[in-house]
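Curious: why this fold?
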Amino acid sequence: MQPKDSTTNEGFKGFTNHSCPFLPCHEGVRGEFNCLFCYCPLIAYECPGPYEVFTDKNGVTRKDCSACTLPHNGYQGAWNFIQKWLEKPVVWNGQPQTRKYRQKPVKPKKGQSETDETRDTPDTSLP
């Protein structure tokens, strides 16, 4: 039996630790900086966020996700992103990304030029 989600309070979807000495740890975050996923739960899984692959001093292949802002982009956005990717997790195979990550322009609001704001999204046109 699944628990029924009957709350309208969404305070559990994020917070900003204003006393953190590393804040802001990522540049380019949209919305309120979400610290809930400071240690991203997708580190061991395939994900669309930009990451580099490196080999540590013990010869273990690791992901460097320091350029990724997806788990920090607002409370609602970050929560939805993580939940979506954890629904059907695929264990990371230790290889570099095959789907490149790019920034797409956000549809401009009235009176705003297209270059005023960009949105981080995975490039889904590649296999």
